[in-house]
Amino acid sequence: MTASLSDADRLKRQAAARALDYVRSGMKIGLGTGSTAKHFVDLLAERVVEGLEVVGVPTSEATRTQAESLGVPLATLDEHPVLDLVIDGADEIGPDLSLIKGGGGALLREKIVATAAGQMIVIADATKKVARLGAFPLPIEVVDFGVAAIRRSIDRAARAAGCQGLLTLRRRPDGHVFVTDQGHLILDAAYLSIADPAALAARLSEVPGVVEHGLFINLASRVILAGADGVTVIDRA
């Protein structure tokens, strides 16, 4: 039976709580974006009130607003270009801890922050762990010039990597086009199954007009999954 929203949130919060075990005073921490990362920021703020001394670098304006409202000290990546760790969620987690991220639209900043961190800890409910990436549409962030041409180039690149599927321009619930914090657009690619994420990532990165894609390869060093049987920690081999 599908877990209710309250059950899902409970699992997300359990994973977020476990991630706090890896946080120490004095750390500079990347703060992720999305529903699971939101729980982590809530819990981190409670520890800050208790005396934990950390500096957070948010991966989106939404996370910045949340953290500021809760009193978490913040800085920019320009002020702290090297971070101790980043804690973030994921839309899908593959067997080798490759990820699909970007469901919340913050994939560009999330990848920049993850690359700047000594380690990336991913927190999620157990349903996000999959045998093969691709059931969740892959977000591809693009510039707003020549989108039709970019779309054709993405299709060619994906086919060369063994993938094909419908590309959909992301829109907000009110029907307006979704625009990222950096002013870009997102094409969501319904590839269904990605046999070789690294090959697809390399092909997409070569497409002019593609700013970034939601395949996070060799970035997650640890995954914390919360499920019906408790919390499981998986380290990348």
Describe this structure as you would to a colleague.
The structure is a single chain. By secondary structure, the protein is of the alpha/beta class. 31% of the residues lie in helices and 24% in strands. The chain contains six helices and 13 strands. A six-stranded mixed β-sheet has the order 2-1-3-6-12-13, sandwiched between helices. Helix 2 links the parallel strand 1 and strand 2. Helix 1 crosses helix 2 (35-49). The longest helix is centred in the first third of the chain and has 15 residues, at 5-19. It is globular, with a radius of gyration of 17 Å. The two termini are 33 Å apart. The model is unreliable at 1-5 (pLDDT under 50).
Topology:
Blueprint: H1 5-19, E1 28-31, H2 35-49, E2 55-58, H3 61-70, E3 85-88, E4 92-93, E5 99-100, H4 107-116, E6 120-125, E7 138-142, H5 147-160, E8 166-169, E9 185-190, H6 197-205, E10 210-213, E11 215-216, E12 220-227, E13 230-235
Parallel strand pairs: 1-2, 1-3, 3-6, 6-12
Antiparallel strand pairs: 4-5, 5-11, 7-9, 7-10, 8-9, 12-13
Q: What's the helix-strand series?
A: HEHEHEEEHEEHEEHEEEE
Can you tell me the overall shape?
A: globular
Give average pLDDT, whole number: 96
> What percentage of residues falls in helices of 4 or more residues?
25-40%
Determine the strand fraction and express it as a percent band.
Answer: 15-25%
